[in-house]
Design goal:
By secondary structure, the chain is of the alpha+beta class. Helices cover 39% and strands 37% of the residues. It has one domain: Nuclear Transport Factor 2, Chain: A (Roll), CATH 3.10.450. The longest helix is centred in the C-terminal third of the chain and has 17 residues.
Amino acid sequence: MAQALEHWHRLVRTRDAAGLQDLLAEEVVFYSPVVHSPQRGKPLTTMYLTAALQVFGNESFRYVREIAGASDAVLEFELELDGIAINGVDLIKWNEQGKIVEFKVMLRPLKAVNLIHQKMAEMLKRQ
């Protein structure tokens, strides 16, 4: 289902969170690098990914590697935020209908995790 991956890349390029409604399955689970428990369901996942599109969405963000299979993908990304070089991966799994059912974000280094935690908390409070 390359269309799910193409749809995700388009959302990242345009930073248009409205497209998440068509892309996420109702039962989607989001795994955050800064929240210890999985965030279950479309409303919570939409909230987190909307905030992430804003926090991560600057001109330095770019995917540098992509490994994709029939129903999942690993996308390595890099960006700079507040002078900190951030490296991470998005692990995305979708169903037969091309809807994302699992989205997991992993980050490094620790300094970046702490910064993202702060920025995401600020963004989620505003939503």
